[in-house]
Amino acid sequence: MQQYRDIHCSLSSFYEDDKTAEQDRLKEEIESLKAELVGKSKQDPYEAQMRLLEVLSIAPLFLTS
Fold first, then answer.
1. For residues 38 and 51, what is the distance between their CA atoms, to the nearest angstrom?
2. Which of 1, 34, 57, 61 has its CB surrounded by the most CB atoms within 10 Å?
3. Stretch 3-23: mean pLDDT
4. What is the pTM of this model?
5. Cα 61 from Cα 33, distance rounded (Å)
């Protein structure tokens, strides 16, 4: 039984670390997209609006995970 608990704790820790890494990766991606949108809004406002709509359409996926 102790062995089961040890394995369970190890797996829980692994998944928590993986989730944290995924959240960090998503934060970096969002920051990159923000920088991209700011640059595009100066060059081509229409393209920036389309990209923003695309990003916002998938944002709920990031917020629920």
1. 11
2. 34
3. 65
4. 0.45
5. 16
